[in-house]
Specification:
662 residues; alpha+beta; Beta-Lactamase; five-stranded mixed β-sheet; four-stranded antiparallel β-sheet; 13 strands; 57% helix; 11% strand; disordered C terminus
Length: 662
């Protein structure tokens, strides 16, 4: 019912204003109406048309009704002007004078309140309440002064005198009030213009763009009035006509430009059947918001990113406040949070909450826009958190390497130096020299182990498959490694191979340390643009929701940074399965005849004929050797061949033997 009343009232107001504008323009020139007058009529009609559209779609928005009221004053003034030109003394003259006096109200609303209340019909701040009251009083004085002025003001129209004019001293006071009111109204307009400039300088970028349009419109409107006053009375009709056209067209033009160009009041143009329709709301598009805030997010720290995202959401949806919150409790609010959130959507690792809209209720379109905005906002939040965790993981890795060197190899070298000093002092007894040689070998082995933890040489020289084989060959439990054939002949980017290698290494280390596994299976594959690794064990398993990922968190972040993922599935008594994958580009072929620079030749799977080393061309699936818990160092145990049958066995069907790889 309220919507129907608003539609009827807005239609009646716009129709009356339009009729007054057309009637006044036609009476001014007579028939036929010149083309220039039709141009002037079209410019004047844009104001009631724009007010009608806003008031019908958003009856709760004061701004549409303000435009209709201004258009009504224009229609009354135009009709009064026509009556004074075409009518004579008597009732027509009285009606003409009364209606013409509404021009001061038109100017006051156009100069002061249309720019001041732009775009939602609300004052910029509470401090403007007193200023708005003073401006309204000044405009009222301007109107009364013109209405009650003595007869001389209306002499160009008729000789019968102003029926509302005051005589004597009262008439002089009325004339002075009209002139002073006009000047004060113009000064109030300049004050509003200055406030618009300050608002534009202090506002976020998304709010500055429509304010620039209103500043331009206000300047054009005031400039047109000055132009008309300077040239119209000097007989320069063209300049006077252009000035009047600027007065009538400037404000509707800039409001329409702000509405359509920047989606103020959410105006979008579309075709429904044979009718052109406009839809109103108050927000920019997601693309515009992201384009605005995107460059600033790149160089901002996580807290600054949250602040900018919250500000963008508040400006985009025109809400009183907006908050971006993370799951860890971090919360940043743009605006003054003065109540419960009326709209909340999840966003990655947190959520976005919005307060009431500055104008109108929350609509389904608001929810759709916020839901669409939550996707990139969530990605930005997740990326910021991921980057922070990667930095922490790298720092923890450096501290671990420093600790391992200090507690391990450094202490061994110190003991070795002390032993050498003792050997020199005692003449170098054979038993002591043998002990020192064994200590040197152990220190070398520990350094190699430490270097392998940083970046194994097998990964640089032979690729992912061989590095995983070499790592698993030193495990004290039965381990099977299955690798797809193309992993033997191709290489992948270093960061991809490194991430997958250390993920596999951490997974098998967890199987040994935590799961009490007796058998581990590793599978490597490349399919559908993904490089995938699966590590499964037969250990006691665990509940991932309770225990966590057992040190795999930094590696999961590393995989996500490459666009991949890590999944851990386990249950008490059922073993553990770790699956990791990353997207990969077209891999680079590896030349067999000429080793790649810095990589060296890559041995193939072991066989009986080559002493367990292999030539790399006979088997498509990788098979590795492993050492049992009771074996002596350097002795190789039988090879487990996944999917090869007897391919890894010697001619007699026995496991191949050979020298271990240290």
């Amino acid at each position: 019912m309220a919507s129907t009343r608003a539609r009827l009232l807005s239609g009646a107001a716009a129709g009356a204003a339009s009729a007054g504008i057309v009637a006044g323009a036609v009476m001014e020139t007579g028939l036929p109406v010149p083309f220039t007058q039709w141009v002037f009529i079209a410019a004047c009609l844009s104001l009631p048309a724009l007010g009608l559209l806003i008031a019908r779609r958003r009856p709760d928005n004061v701004y549409g009704w303000l435009l209709l009221a201004t258009a009504g004053c224009l229609g009354l003034g135009a009709s009064g002007y026509g009556l004074l030109l075409r009518g004579g003394p008597g009732p027509a003259a009285a009606a003409g004078v009364l209606m013409l006096s509404f021009f001061p109200l038109f100017y006051g609303l156009s100069w002061v309140f249309i720019p001041l209340l732009f775009p939602d019909g609300r004052l910029p701040s509470r401090r403007w309440r007193a200023g708005a009251r003073i401006a309204a009083a000044v405009i009222a004085v301007y109107w009364l002064g013109i209405l009650l002025s003595p007869d001389e003001i209306y002499a160009p129209f008729f000789s019968g005198g102003n029926p509302f004019g005051l005589g004597g001293t009262a008439g002089l006071v009325a004339g002075a009030a009209g002139g002073l009111g006009q000047l004060a109204t113009f000064l109030a307009a300049l004050a509003v213009l200055a406030s618009l400039v300050l608002r534009c300088l202090r506002s976020p970028a998304a709010e500055r763009r429509p304010l620039r349009w209103m500043i331009a419109g206000t300047v054009a409107n005031l400039g047109g009035y000055v132009l008309t006053g300077l040239f119209a009375e000097k007989g320069q009709e063209a300049a006077g006509w252009f000035g009047a056209l600027t007065i009538m067209a400037a404000m509707p033009a800039v409001i329409a430009a702000a509405v359509f160009r920047h989606n103020l009041l959410d105006v979008r143009v579309g075709i429904r059947g044979s009718r052109l329709f406009l839809v109103f709301d108050l927000r920019p598009t997601v693309d515009e918001l992201l384009t605005e805030i995107g460059p600033g997010l790149e160089d901002a720290d996580p807290v600054e990113q949250l602040e900018r995202l919250a500000g963008a959401v508040r400006a985009g949806l025109e809400v009183r406040w907006a908050a971006v919150a993370l799951a860890d409790g971090t919360r940043v609010v743009a605006g003054e949070e003065d109540g419960e959130a009326v709209l909340t959507v999840p966003a990655g690792l947190g959520h976005i909450a919005c307060g009431p809209k500055t104008a109108g209720p929350v609509t389904a379109e608001d929810r759709r826009l916020l839901g669409a905005l939550a996707v990139p906002v969530g990605l930005a939040i997740r990326s910021a958190a991921l980057a922070a965790r990667l930095v922490d993981a790298e720092e923890a890795g450096r501290r671990r390497i420093e600790r391992d060197i200090h507690d391990g190899a450094q202490q061994q070298l110190v003991a070795l130096i002390a032993g050498l000093e003792l050997a020199r002092a005692t003449g170098g007894e054979p038993e002591l020299l043998a002990l020192l040689r064994e200590q040197a070998r152990q220190a070398l082995a520990d350094l190699r182990e430490l270097a392998a933890g940083i970046h194994p040489s097998a990964l640089s020289q032979g690729g992912l498959a061989e590095a995983v084989e070499e790592r698993c060959s030193r495990l004290p439990v039965a381990t099977t490694v299955t690798a797809a054939p193309e992993l033997r002949a191709r290489r992948f980017p270093d960061q991809v191979e490194g991430a997958m290698y250390f993920t596999v290494s951490e997974a098998v280390a967890n199987a040994l340390k935590h799961a009490d596994a007796t058998r581990i299976e590793v599978r490597l594959a490349h399919a559908a643009g993904r490089l995938q690794a699966v590590v499964a064990d037969d250990g006691r398993g665990f509940d991932p929701a309770v225990t966590g990922r057992r040190g795999l968190g930094p590696l999961a972040d590393r995989l996500r940074a490459l666009g991949g993922s890590l999944e851990v599935s386990s249950a008490p008594g059922e073993g553990t399965r770790v699956r990791a994958w990353v997207p990969v580009p077209v891999p680079v072929p590896v030349s067999r005849s000429v080793p790649e620079a810095g990589r060296g030749p890559r041995p193939g799977p072991p066989s009986a004929e080559d002493g367990g080393r292999g030539d790399g061309d006979d088997h498509g699936v990788a098979v590795v050797q492993r050492r049992g818990p009771g074996d002596e160092a350097g002795q190789l145990l039988p090879v487990q061949a996944a999917g090869l049958g007897e391919a890894a066995r010697g001619p007699a069907g026995q496991p191949g033997q050979g020298e271990g790889r240290g």
